[in-house]
Amino acid sequence: MNTPILDKEKCTACGLCAEVCGLDVIARNGDGHPIINPAAYCHACGHCVAICPQNALSIREIGSDAFAPMPASNISSTDMEAFLLTKRSCREFKDRPVEKAVIEQLIDVARMAPTAINCQERVFIVVTDQVKITELRMALTKHARSMLKLIKLGASKPASLFLSSDTHAHMHHLQADFEVALRHMDDGGDYIFHYAPCLIFFAGITMDPAGRDHALGAQHYLMLYAETMGLGTSINGYAQSAPKVLAKHLDVPEAYTIYGAITLGYRKYTYRRRVHREPALTVYHE
């Protein structure tokens, strides 16, 4: 059981640990040392350990290395803005495999993405075997053909009587994309995975309302970190929208559903201009 442990000899009773504890595990005690309730549920977020200026707190059964001090970030807001504004989806990769050590480094950072009550319930499924990638490509191509039939119905003129204008327009965008994809696939190309040497799938607990968020949070951590290592990524909508298809071909742990899917590889090209986006649709309540 996770329980904070207080070293009273080091503690100065500043009360910061109680202030940041989100589950009433640690409570203020006037001017005295804070009180720790051993019966309370502690999800080991480590806020109390991280904020204590005297290093007076630890958490039972979790080594101190798990909360090792880190140097302050020196990334400026200008640098971060430039980084985010130039992040592009990558669909052209070098003919070079992604080393296992690099993949493990990416996952080691991605696992730090936040989860509700610090449950950390997500799974990373990595595919570098080309036979398996071909198997997935064929399965998703078949699925895309079936989906295109439904998309065409949604894009049809009669459907405009029942769908909002935005939804109907989006169905047209989807139709064009799927038609291009299938044309390339029929010509022997790979519009599904774009010859990526590595696929990574992100799964969360099926019955957890936040399961999708847990998976996608890790996905975006990994994608951004990959950029700093000369790697390119792209969210793979064909796979991400077909979790049941993927489950037939991948070892997805019981109780989990795949919510995220990306292609990964070393970037073949470098883009030199920022990404274009339409103005944000923002609603304020002031």
Q: Your description of this structure?
A:
Among the domains are: 4-66, Alpha-Beta Plaits, CATH 3.30.70; 85-129 and 192-266, NADH Oxidase, CATH 3.40.109.10. A four-stranded antiparallel sheet has the order 5-6-8-7. 26% of the residues are buried. A hairpin with a 7-residue loop joins strand 2 (26-27) and strand 3. It has helices spanning 16-20, 47-51, 77-85, 100-110, 130-155, 165-186, 211-227, 237-240, 243-247, and strands at 4-6, 26-27, 35-36, 57-59, 122-127, 198-205, 231-235, 256-266. It is built from nine helices and eight strands. Helix 4 (100-110) crosses helix 7 (211-227). The chain is α+β, with helices and mostly antiparallel strands. 36% of the residues lie in helices and 14% in strands.
Topology:
Layout: E1 4-6, H1 16-20, E2 26-27, E3 35-36, H2 47-51, E4 57-59, H3 77-85, H4 100-110, E5 122-127, H5 130-155, H6 165-186, E6 198-205, H7 211-227, E7 231-235, H8 237-240, H9 243-247, E8 256-266
Antiparallel strand pairs: 1-4, 2-3, 5-6, 6-8, 7-8
Helix pairs in contact: 4-7, 5-6
- Number of helical regions: 9
Oligomer state equals single chain
Label the structural class.
alpha+beta
Largest beta-sheet characterization: 4 strands, antiparallel
Structure keywords:
286 residues; alpha+beta; Alpha-Beta Plaits; NADH Oxidase; 4-stranded antiparallel β-sheet; two-stranded antiparallel ribbon; 8 strands
Briefly characterize the structure:
This protein is of the alpha+beta class and 286 residues long.
